[in-house]
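Recall that a protein's primary structure is simply its ordered list of amino acids. Everything else, from secondary elements to tertiary packing, is in principle encoded there. The following example makes that idea concrete.
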Amino acid sequence: MLYIGLVLGVFAGNIAAHAAGMDAARVYVATVILMVPALAGARLLYVAAEWNFYRRHLRRIWDRSDGGYIMYGGLPAALLISIPLLRVLHVSIAGFWDIAIFTILVGMFFTRIGCLLHGCCGGRAWNGCFSLRLPDRNGIWEHRVPTQLLEAAWAAALVVIGVSLRSSMPFRGALFLVLSFGYSVGRLLMEFARDRQPKAGFSVAHWVTVLILLLSSSALALYWPR
């Protein structure tokens, strides 16, 4: 599902590039190249979050048979590397990320379906309305908050919102900031519904979500025309 999400995300980005009047071939090349640091960053953030385990099993950090990605980790890595890369390709950095956000959200939709099938990123045990009988990553089946489906649905909703807002944004990069802010709001709420150990306190994903909320909202407040 991760692979399907990457392929269809690139396809969505190609459509968005054509719609924005950008050089779709150069956007495609940049997107494919940036997938490498994005996946590496997502893996490294997961390793950092689970360091108590990986410090005793260093050889398993890059073991592809192990699951484990925190997708947030891919964003800062890709953002940093995109600056010199997009300059070399003569592609607008802000314009590129207005397109790349569609690639990210489409990829997120299918990746979360994979999480649902695998049991990772599962919700807390819950017998309320809309709960589903689902496994966690250890194979324990209970009625849970379907956090994977909620996040997939939120990503799909943001794609629709992004398409509707695309032509009304006041500057390049605004769409990326708006959708990043929107995704982070939903993700912060869903983080509290996840089945985590320990049960209390902020996780790495909580802190990264708050950071993205602050950065995106600050940038929008700074650059949005008065």
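The chain has eight helices and two strands. The longest strand covers residues 132-135.
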